[in-house]
């Protein structure tokens, strides 16, 4: 598939483009099939070989959006009429209308029987007891860990106090 599109040729911060015909999947600055014009976006100057543009359009080359607007200015293509859409209503109204339409359009299905409860060996009372036991075990573990960390901290504090006392005694002796 061929495209009529722009190929950049300008310097940095000074864009200039060639209007070229090239395969749709090729790179922007890849090899062009034919050079049919030029475009300077700063001065808005457009040079275009109208005969070649008509030929490539008749062969089936598709213009990009920018080229389409250039071709419309040169009256090679007609501007597509705009399709007017009704203004959107606030979300709440749209949701309400959608719900009403859905409820009106969908026939009510007969109510399904609720699935029977699965038979299990464990009774709900036993489950509650097990979960309580598990929760108590977790709490005990946390308490034990907290007590161990407190003991470790106390032991570290005592060591630090003893060390500072020794340091003070050595200073006093000197």
Spell out the blueprint of helices and strands.
Blueprint lengths: L1 E7 L8 E7 L10 E7 L4 E4 L1 H10 L2 E2 L1 H9 L17 H15 L18 H50 L1
Parallel strand pairs: 1-5
Antiparallel strand pairs: 1-2, 2-3, 3-4
Key descriptive features of the protein:
single chain, elongated, about 170 residues, alpha+beta, five-stranded mixed sheet, 5 strands, S16 Ribosomal Protein, Chain: A
Short synopsis of the structure:
With 174 residues, the chain is an alpha+beta fold. It has helices spanning 50-59, 65-73, 91-105, 124-173; strands spanning 2-8, 17-23, 34-40, 45-48, 62-63. Among the domains are: 2-73, Ribosomal protein S16 (S16 Ribosomal Protein, Chain: A); 135-174.
Outline the structure in words:
The chain is α+β, with helices and mostly antiparallel strands. Among the domains are: 2-73, Ribosomal protein S16 (S16 Ribosomal Protein, Chain: A); 135-174. The chain is built from 4 helices and 5 strands; from the N terminus they run E-E-E-E-H-E-H-H-H. It has helices at 50-59, 65-73, 91-105, 124-173, and strands at 2-8, 17-23, 34-40, 45-48, 62-63. Strands 4-3-2-1-5 form a 5-stranded mixed beta sheet. It is elongated, with a radius of gyration of 41 Å. The mean pLDDT is 80.
